Amino acid sequence: MHLLKNSAHRAWLVLLIATGITWYLGEVGAAGTWAIVAMLIIAFVKGRLVVLDFMELRGAPTMWRMLLEGWLIVVSSLILLAYWISLK
Amino acid sequence: MTTLAAPAPATLHPGKRLPGDLAIWFFIMAEMLAFAVFFASYAFARARNVELFNLYQQTLDRNAGALNTLLLITGSWFVVLAVQAAHRDDSKAISRNIGLGFLCGAGFLAVKIFEYGEKFGAGISLSTNTFYMFYISLTFFHFMHVILGMVILSVIWSQARKGAYGSKDCNGLESGAAYWHMVDLLWIILFPLIYVMR
User: Fold this and answer.
1) Binary contact (B36, A74; C-beta < 8 A)
2) B196–A50 CB contact, under 8 Å
3) Cβ of B18 and A60 within 8 Å?
4) Model confidence over B23-74: pLDDT tens digits?
5) Scanning A49, A88, B70, B86, which has the fewest C-beta atoms within 10 Å of its C-beta?
6) How far apart are CA A17 and CA A27, in angstroms?
7) What are phi and psi of B165, to 5 degrees?
């Protein structure tokens, strides 16, 4: 279990599992509001792990951390807005 | 000389450090801004053609898309391990992990070429319809970034073989690693958006 003390190993494991969940949602034909929200949350969590544990911005100056995390929030929100419009 | 110069930036942000060169982060933000515009354009174009997008999305190879996600995630992970190896001055592990990251990138390209071969073989092109226009241009734009990332990894690999990186100097390695992670980050949005969300 000492392997999981390395944040990069933990992030890699979570990223693999999260990708499997997104793939599975596709396999079962998940569609509509809840599926889109679930996939966007998964993508956001994955993106944040890449930013914090792979790009190693966890300990970076706040501005840079906010720029990349902000990018994830803006992109997910725009996608959510577009899908919400399409469901109306 | 260098020992005197090195700690200077730390005093600006006590305890906080941006890995790699500042310039690479501006470059990464510019690239990510371009992709944000593309992602939003796809989503809003889809909102006006929901049936068309849902119909042709089903022709995409979701397994190939998921496999490519795993390849980029694993490639990124190897490159993190290379940076960690540099911090503990394990120079053999630096080049080995960069090499493995590069191989993951090559695997991604092979899967993508197989996918393109299938689509182009079926006579699909940019002008087939709006969905394929977005699918081909977005994934191809990303494909070019994977290639650039691999060029950067090969430069870093040969530098690492010469022993250029260690705990005292790994700015070049961290800069290249940051770019490679960006390629991964973009695909993490692109895969659900184009292959799965409906």
Assistant:
1) yes
2) no
3) yes
4) 999 999 999 999 999 999 999 999 999 999 999 999 999 999 999 999 999 9
5) A88
6) 15
7) -115, 145
Q: Do A60 and B76 touch (CB under 8 A)?
A: no
Judge whether B108 is closer than 8 Å to chain A, CB to CB: no
Structure tokens at B80: 């993190």
A61 contacts chain B (CB < 8 A) = yes
Q: Which domains does chain B carry?
A: 20-196 (1.20.120.80)
Do B175 and B20 touch, CB atoms closer than 8 A?
yes
- Candidates B90, B185, B186, B195, partner chain A, best to mutate (most A CBs within 10 A): B185
Helix then strand count (H, E) for chain A reads 3, 0
Pick from A8, A71, A85: CB nearest B47: A85
User: B95 exposed, middle or buried (CB, 10 Å; 0-12, 13-18, 19+)?
Assistant: buried
ipTM: 0.95
Residue indicated by tokens 């939003």 = B40
